[in-house]
Amino acid sequence: MSGQTDTELARHIAETAGRLLLELQKSRLFEGKTLGKAGDRIANAFIMEALAVQRPADAVLSEEEVNDSARCSQSRVWIVDPLDGTREYGEGRTDWAVHVALALDGRPSIGAVALPGLDLTLCSGRPEVLPATPSKLRMLVSRTRPAAEALAVAKTLDAELIPMGSAGAKAMAIVRGEADIYLHSGGQYEWDNCAPAAVALAAGLHVSRIDGSPLSYNNQNPYLPDLLVCPKAIAVQILELLTEPKPA
C-alpha cells in the first residue's frame, strides 16, 4: 500500500476488511450476534493497524475504539465503521458495509464504502453516473425502525418505501440509482455516515442534515443524528416538507 493516495488507501482498506469479514462468515465458527461481535472486532483490529502503519500521523475515530477527544485538534482524521449493519451481517444478508473515510478540517472529503456481500466498493475518487429519477420516487427506510419524518415525507410524495439495513448500503443505493431518497432522523454517529457522505457528494448528490445544514465531522461529541441523501433536483422540495410547521 506504500505510495497510495488517501482515496486509494481508503478503498484498499475497506475492501480488505470486507474480504476478512466474508471469510469469517464462511468459516461458520460463529453465527448471529456472536458472528457480528467477532466481525466488529476483527475488522476494527485490521483497520486500526493498517492506518497506524500507513498514516501514523493521522488521528482515527472508530466506532469500536474509545473516543479520544485529542483528535479534535488535528485536521486529518480517519472516521471508520468496521462493520456497518452488524445485525444484517450476522443474519447472512448483503446489506452491510465497511466505511473508511478521511475528514479534512471537519469535511467529509474522502471515503470508501465496501459492500462485500455484493462484491462492490464505491469511493469518492470514482463517482458513479446517476441514472434518471423514475416517475415514482423510492425512499429507503430502516428495516426495523423507520423514522417518523421519513414516513411522513414518503406519504406526501407518494414514494415507494424500500426497507434496508446498513446506513452505508442505503446511501450507496442512492448513488447506484436503486433508490432516490435516504432520509434518516433516528440517531447516528459520525462513523455511520462520513464515508457514505463523501462518496455521495463526489457523485454529485445532495447531502446534508435534515434542516439543510452541512454535515460536520471530528466533533468532540461524535453524535450526528440525521442526514438526507438525494438528487439535488428534489432536495429543496424534501427540505421544505421537513421544515413545514406541524398542525396543532
Automatic annotation (TrEMBL):
InterPro entries: CysQ/Inositol_MonoPase (IPR050725), Inositol_monophosphatase-like (IPR000760). Keywords: Magnesium, Metal-binding, Plasmid. Its cofactor is Mg(2+). It comes from the Bacteria. One of its GO terms (biological process) is 3'-phosphoadenosine 5'-phosphosulfate metabolic process. One of its GO terms (molecular function) is metal ion binding. Signal peptide: none annotated. It holds the Pfam family Inositol_P. Mg(2+) binds at residues 63, 81, 83-84, 192. This is 3'(2'),5'-bisphosphate nucleotidase CysQ.
